[in-house]
Write a structure and sequence with these properties.
Elements lengths: L4 E5 L1 H18 L5 E7 L3 H10 L5 E10 L8 E6 L9 E9 L3 H11 L5 E9 L12 E5 L4 E3 L15 E4 L1
Parallel strand pairs: 2-3, 2-5, 5-6, 6-7
Antiparallel strand pairs: 1-9, 3-4, 8-9
Helix pairs in contact: 1-2
The structure holds inosinic acid and magnesium ion (MG).
Amino acid sequence: MVKGLTLLFSKEEIAETVTGLAREISADYANKKMVLIGVLKGAFIFLADLARHLTIPVEIEFMRIASYGSQKESSGKVTVTKDVEISLEGKDVLVIEDIVDTGLSLTFLIDHLRTHNPSSLKVCALVDKKSRREVEVEVDYVGFTIDDGFIVGYGIDFNEGYRALPEIFVID
Ligand code: IMP
Ligand code: MG
């Protein structure tokens, strides 16, 4: 047990949730030209686990965005720091995010990805902080919904720390 952290989701709960999402996505995207776009860095472990449970062929791509604000708050001023490097034209894109909080980052990301002309564009988030939304944005696949609290682990950081923890914790 790590000091200052309270366990929120165990390895077993995460595995069960990710497997369930993979089953649902595999059914929905059968016979499609699927591309998973992981949003770096937070979604890297989620994407890796999810992808290995899919039963359909997929392409895998990554994007990185930066938002300016304090460490725990998003400001809404977002820029692309690493764009996709493969064509998304006519493909069925599923964005893989760690957390949707205010929704500002995701709204920016969706607007940006639309310029790459995918034939469909949906979003899968491991954690949805639905009650904190500042802009309306649809999340098509949600692993966990939480009300508030700052979480870390399973790829998710605070100040670049804690990403490698296999469980998800709430930080004080
Ligand atoms: P939004 O633009 O406010 O929706 O910000 C979403 C992004 O903020 C997520 O992709 C995370 O990178 C970060 N974030 C939001 N809540 C948390 C948290 O509880 N822990 C770590 N990062 C968070
Ligand atoms: Mg993020």
